[in-house]
Amino acid sequence: MLDVIEEAKREELKAKCREMKVLPPTDIFIGLQVHDKGKLIFDDVQRGHSWTRNYWNAIFAYVSNCSIVDSSFGAGYISCKNPAGAFTYQANTLLIQGLIMAGSANITNGIVVGTGTSAFDVEQYALDALIGSGNSAGKLYYNASAVSSTTYAAKAWTIVGSRIFNNNSGGSIVVAETGLYSAQGWSIYWLFERSVLGAAVTVPDAAQLTVTYTIVDDFSAID
After folding, report:
1. Of 220, 194, 219, 208, whose CA–CA distance to 143 is shortest?
2. For residues 117 and 160, what is the distance between their CA atoms, to the nearest angstrom?
3. What is d(CA 177, CA 211) in angstroms, rounded to the nearest whole number?
4. Domain ranges of the chain
5. Spatial contact of 114 and 175, defined as CB atoms under 8 Å apart
6. What is the per-residue pLDDT across 52-71, written as a single tens digit (0 to 9) for each?
7. Are the C-beta atoms of residues 72 and 79 closer than 8 Å to each other?
8. Confidence grade of residue 93 (pLDDT, cut at 50, 70, 90)
């Protein structure tokens, strides 16, 4: 559920940004639905806040003609870590791909989910406790991402992407975090966004979880 006070503060910030002719921070909305035997039993939208250092470094490297080659990670370094914690190199010339898209059973690209509850930290490069893809205990089956849509309306650009997770594990699974992994080329994967859910979602056995990311950039200050 969206926080009314926070949403009001963000609207005030957007108004100030329009006055200054600069774009406000990107909006991230995370939709969560659980269907059990075809019946909708949970439906919520929460706000995401949490771009990681991987994201900011990758974007800066791409626009500044700077390759990601540092061997240290953190403030003062243009570097990225993959989900295993290893430094991975990416030349600036290759376009960042697949923020939303991912194939069936792929847990290193697109929308991912986990059970971890640790607070967000910008230095994180993996979910706290990623749920693996499969049909055995403790796993959810990751379906291929739905084709994302991009629209321009009311002077805002919006991208929407979703993914369905099937619970064939034999028991309930509690999802407490979501994230976006982005592929750079064919073999490099970075966590770009992680959100700890304000309210965890219980997915019963044989149920389906649908996670939808809606990412909005308000261009009204310049359009």
Report:
1. 208
2. 25
3. 11
4. 4-218
5. yes
6. 999 998 888 878 877 777 77
7. yes
8. very low
